[in-house]
Amino acid sequence: MNKTLTTIALLLWACLSWPVWAQQGWSVQHFALQLEPRFESRTMVGTLDMAFSVQDTKLHHVDLDAGELVVGAVTLGAQALVFEKSGTRLHITLPDGMVAGRRQHLRISYQGRASSGLRFDADSQQVATAFSTSHWMPCLDDPSVRARFTLTLALRPQLVSVGNGNPRPPVQRPGRLTEHVWRLDTPMPSYVYGFAAGPFEQVRQTAGKTTLEYFGPQPFTPQSLNQVFADSADMLAFYEKRSGIPYPLPAYRQVLLAGPAAQEMAGYSVMGVRYGQRVLANPQAIWLGAHEMAHQWWGNGLTNRSWRHFWLNEGIATFMTAAYLEHRFGVEAYADQIEAARTKYLALKKAGLDRSLVFPDWDKPTADDRSLVYDKGALVLHELRNVLGDDTFWKGLKHYTRKHWGQSVETADFRQAMEESTGRDLSQFFAQWVEIASTRN
Ligand SMILES: [Zn+2]
Fold it and tell me: Rounded mean pLDDT of 17-33?
């Protein structure tokens, strides 16, 4: 995410300030969503099939996050279930006698009005999700919950769609909307589910085993999109090398949207058209593209277990962006990024706003809290690089990434992996920089 975009920050705040409801006694394996976004009314109609199993046979209910969605029916097989919407939670009563470990399929029919999670832009004929997944499909906001996701979108003809994972060729049935299916077979947290659709220009490249695709509205052309995203293959190779993990999906897609946008999703990212314009004017202005791509590893591959450890997503991605700019444009580009982070952090510290990078909670984060997560987070990584030296630091970061790939992580995991790899006791460093606010030392 780009911390400079207020709108996105507000969306982020809206999502992250929701309470987290952990699964207790049950687990979800797969969400399959059929969704029809309706431009004229700026509403949506959806049917969600959730594959899940219970571990606790005495479980009486499951709770999902469902924003302001209006639920019409919930069924388990042929059986209608009792449900209740309370605030943003959907409380579903299960029948007696659930069998432990057996795969069950729950179907939820709902509708809703576009809120913070779904954006329609009538002028550009674009519709795209914006982070707050439970505002457009019932799910679990908890970032430690991973599940596979299949999305079937019903769209008017001529629209191009981008979603998570692998697409099937769109199917247009006479007199009906066009069906676009996207399938994500790698279990991922729900906050990186999404889609974008519009009358996009598109262009495709290959980078080793990965297909790179770029999308944007006119007046972008395949040629100018190639210019905007010219460094993508190099970025991908850089992050693969530093992480020790090949990019995990067959394709990575980057989409330019009307209006402000800056968000990583599983297998793609969205940015505003202004980002594209900036890069065309200045090919070095690629911070945002590099940042969002870094999240495919630090954020999506390894995900903060709770938002208290958000710096593991954003601080590391911000630091890795600086590291990529160093690789691409030289050490001064890196130094500029680190000094900018240091300046912002020192200003917060001077104002008495320094806090531990591990937040006691993330209920009502301020803009300053977010700055700490990004800027102090990146600065801490830089300081650790200084303390350990280049070779040792990068070896440690690679060990952390490989050890926890596909998992939820918290700060202790990062510290332990760095200590294992380097053989160093980092307790003093983490105490000073991470675990308590340095103003309190
Ligand atoms: Zn980010």
Answer: 73
Rounded distance from Cα 190 to ligand 1 centre (Å): 16
Distance 360 CA to ligand 1 centre (A): 21
How remote is the CA of residue 199 from the centroid of ligand 1, in Å? Answer: 27
Distance 266 CA to ligand 1 centre (A): 13
Residue 438 and residue 283: Cα distance in Å, rounded? 37
Rounded (10°) angle between helices 287-294 and 273-281 = 130
Which CATH number among 2.60.40.1730, 2.40.50.140, 3.60.15.10, 3.40.50.150 corresponds to the domain 27-191? 2.60.40.1730
Beta bridge partners of 150: 32, 183
Distance from the alpha carbon of residue 79 to the mean position of ligand 1, in angstroms: 42
Separation of CA 60 and ligand 1 centre (Å): 38
Measured between alpha carbons, how far is 236 from 275 in angstroms, rounded to an integer? 19
Distance from the alpha carbon of residue 299 to the mean position of ligand 1, in angstroms: 8
How remote is the CA of residue 322 from the centroid of ligand 1, in Å?
A: 13
Q: Is the pTM of the predicted complex or chain greater than 0.90?
A: yes
How far is it, in rounded angstroms, from Cα 183 to Cα 230? 27
- What confidence score (pLDDT) does residue 176 get? 86
Which CATH superfamily hosts domain 304-440? Answer: Neutral Protease Domain 2 (1.10.390.10)
Q: Could you tell me the distance, in angstroms and rounded to a whole number, from the CA of residue 157 to the centre of ligand 1?
A: 33
User: If you measure from the C-alpha of residue 388 to the centroid of ligand 1, how many angstroms do you get, rounded to a whole number?
Assistant: 25
pLDDT of residue 325: 98
pLDDT digits (tens, 9 = 90+) for 118-136: 999 989 999 999 889 999 9
Q: Give 296's contacts (C-beta < 8 A, 6+ positions apart).
A: 239, 247, 248, 252, 264, 267
pLDDT tens for 421-440 read 999 999 999 999 998 765 44
The structural domains of the chain, with segments of one domain joined by +, span: 27-191, 201-299, 304-440
CA of 10 to the centre of ligand 1 (A): 14
CA–CA distance, 170 with 182 (Å, rounded to integer)? 10
Say how many Å lie between the CA of residue 262 and the centre of ligand 1.
Answer: 8
Please give the CATH topology (third level) of the domain spanning 201-299: Neutral Protease; domain 2 (1.10.390)
